[in-house]
Amino acid sequence: MPLLKSWVESANDAKNPFPLNNLPYGVFSVDDGDLRCGIAIGDRIIDATGLEAAGILRADPDADVLDAPYWNDFMELGPKVWADYRTKLQELLAEDASDEIQDQLTTYSVPMAEATMHMPFRVAEYTDFYAGRHHATNVGTMFRGAENALPPNWLHIPIGYNGRASSVVVSGTDIRRPWGQLKSPDHDTPAFLPCRRFDIELEMGAIVGTPSNGPVTVDEADEMIFGYVLLNDWSARDIQAWEYQPLGPFQAKATATSISPWIVTKAALEPFRVDTPEREYELLDHLKDTGPMLYDIKLAVDMAPAGQPATTIARTNYREMYYSSAQQLAHHSTSGCPMRTGDLLGSGTISGATKPERGSLLELSWGGKEPLTLDTGEERSFIEDGDTLTLKGHCEGDGYTIGFGTCTGTVLPALEDPYAR
Amino acid sequence: MPLLKSWVESANDAKNPFPLNNLPYGVFSVDDGDLRCGIAIGDRIIDATGLEAAGILRADPDADVLDAPYWNDFMELGPKVWADYRTKLQELLAEDASDEIQDQLTTYSVPMAEATMHMPFRVAEYTDFYAGRHHATNVGTMFRGAENALPPNWLHIPIGYNGRASSVVVSGTDIRRPWGQLKSPDHDTPAFLPCRRFDIELEMGAIVGTPSNGPVTVDEADEMIFGYVLLNDWSARDIQAWEYQPLGPFQAKATATSISPWIVTKAALEPFRVDTPEREYELLDHLKDTGPMLYDIKLAVDMAPAGQPATTIARTNYREMYYSSAQQLAHHSTSGCPMRTGDLLGSGTISGATKPERGSLLELSWGGKEPLTLDTGEERSFIEDGDTLTLKGHCEGDGYTIGFGTCTGTVLPALEDPYAR
């Protein structure tokens, strides 16, 4: 598919992340105004809430589904409505739209540079998977030795755990270094201390659009997915090491998970579908690939000490995953677990085969034994106070880019006394 | 505290679970009517939604917080409002209330026998702990041997994992036996099959009333808790055994969790506070007991094969727990994890020291090696199709009972083909 040209000139630049081919959904405000649903096109945001109220572009003829600071009500309407809405939206923004339409839409738009972005949807529940083979092998090797790196179940099911929806925040939110219970290997008893090994996890997040009640097939799961965001699952490695046996990660992952503000729809990603890797064991029928289930999304992580320029510390690709989000969602439903509009599924950390492709500091510094040297000359094993971590992602089309924007957060020092009031 | 007498005669029976001392909160409907907030007193339900609309009993002078099929808006108002409301409610229902008040309240009430009960609150998120020492020791012994029964962290933090809020259902809901991926020890590869080792977990559920944003002390956590329910965390042991390393239980616990329909308030439980057990290691300051933090709640589990009378298969007490809900909630907040109105915290399975005090079939049948014999003569290692499992709980006061009602569910056969449409 080539670049689709828009009358919004900035959207026609091959490097602009938001061409007519993309049209991601977000929630924005300007100055101290209301939170409104918006659509990115070039360097502008279309006010979707306003277009709906004016009757210019409606998803549902009878209900104002965008009269809310989230896209959940729209998501609930399902794939047919998503497709129809996108078609109409592309007509309104195409270069051959009438002058009258262009004037109308311009009225219902704001410069992106003037807008503040907010959470684009209400997170119903948040699940985090562990579906990157290189990541699981790296972490397993560090924790259990190379021979036991991959748990026995890993090549048969996309293992995951339930995270904490209340801790999901939008890109740009500062992240406070947590306190927690941890135990040094050289101490007999644990202590309550600020986290010393605070880390990122580079992930994609899949957003469930339509609900289910009972097991769904991989194809049904794929239909349920509304879109994708970049996701950083901030991780306290020292808290995790002490708490995670036998019930899995808990407080180590509950401080915050950041997501990028624009939901890139499945429709926009369609041209970038790629196959999952070859299988070491054949998957059971209910988890089998039914076509290309991953996406070719180029990913990078930037790290910037306070007041310093950023260094790109990792580059990888979403196609490195062993399991797709559709397979994860199908597995999630096997027990009959009801899945809901707004459920967020983290892919698991995305790492490639080589060292500069690793999606966490734990792997990049090999548990702190091989600190990174940033372009500024500073060394890093884990995150230091004031560091800003930024995930970036895009697909390279034929003369156009499908961008995810960025997912960024600055780490603030731990509270001196977390119980001071 | 003695029995508080009510003009609702049935509430004055020393064995009635719902005297004036109790006054638990639920959501009910009659025939095909709306779902309304209700309060149990003797054999009647007071229509709290109706009392609010009529201006007879209001929690908030300016907002109709009970004009909803859940108590969440009321819970959000906090401890002072909860206490004032309870005081006014006890005055209206006390035996010395005027004839006029008695007539009014009778108009706004229905016989409990005619009502259908629903979920009493919207579950924001659901966390399940593992805080019963006898249970953890029993399960650990079966899975890892007696010497490694308790994980190293167990005596230092109330370990837990995030469950799935969408799967929480009210007592009386039928439970469909799940399918899942499992692996027999005598097979090389896993298979997708109906669960063969379906189980209960006898727990108490604590409901978070007021939110937090940052670490809270144990005393602050206790203030945040609105009340308690009985909780059965249905568990697929064979799915759990295959999936739980290293990320913890996931689909094994996502089919359903049942709760009793009446929220027994912390105020009603106040006379039954008891100390936690002696500590093997001193807890870190932020988790220390600040007074009697558990409750003396007598618990039992009944099992009834289809069409057969029930056998009581276990009797234990909530005071057996090692950690209180307040300590669990304090731990839950250490990372800065935002806690919200409607969060549900499962205590973990409650087992006593001896065999008939065990709160799961896994422990009662010792992993299936020592099947139970029911009063009907039938044997059980795990749940069979058609079995009804019922949790019961009450506190014994001085001439009165604080009852929780029951938490019951019947297990239906697995779907023949979970993907048939």
Query: Roughly how many Å apart are the termini of chain A?
Result: 57 Å
Poorly predicted runs of chain A: none
Largest interface between protein chains, with number of residues from each side: A-B, 64 and 63 residues
Number of domains of chain A: 2
Mean pLDDT across the residues of chain A is 97
Considering the protein shown, what is the CATH homologous superfamily of the largest domain in chain A?
Fumarylacetoacetase-like, C-terminal domain
Layout of helices and strands, plus pairs?
Two copies of one chain form a homodimer.
Chain A: E1 25-30, E2 36-41, E3 44-47, H1 48-53, H2 72-76, H3 79-93, H4 99-107, E4 109-111, E5 115-118, E6 126-129, H5 133-144, E7 160-162, E8 168-170, E9 175-176, E10 179-182, E11 191-194, E12 198-199, E13 202-208, H6 218-224, E14 225-233, E15 235-236, H7 237-243, E16 257-259, E17 264-265, H8 266-269, E18 273-274, E19 294-295, E20 298-304, E21 311-317, H9 325-333, E22 344-346, H10 361-364, E23 372-373, E24 379-380, E25 388-396, E26 401-412
Quickly list its features.
homodimer, 421 residues, alpha+beta, SH3 type barrels, Fumarylacetoacetate hydrolase, domain 2, 8-stranded mixed sheet, 5-stranded antiparallel sheet, 19% helix, globular
Give a structural overview.
2 copies of one chain form a homodimer. By secondary structure, chain A is α+β, with helices and mostly antiparallel strands. The first copy, chain A, folds into 2 domains: 9-118, SH3 type barrels, CATH 2.30.30; 126-412, Alpha-Beta Complex (Fumarylacetoacetate hydrolase, domain 2), CATH 3.90.850.10. In chain A, 19% of the residues lie in helices and 27% in strands. The first copy, chain A, is built from 10 helices and 26 strands. In chain A, strand 23 (372-373) and strand 24 (379-380) form a beta hairpin. The N and C termini of chain A lie far apart (57 Å). At the A-B interface, strand 7, strand 10 and helix 7 of A face strand 7, strand 10 and helix 7 of B.
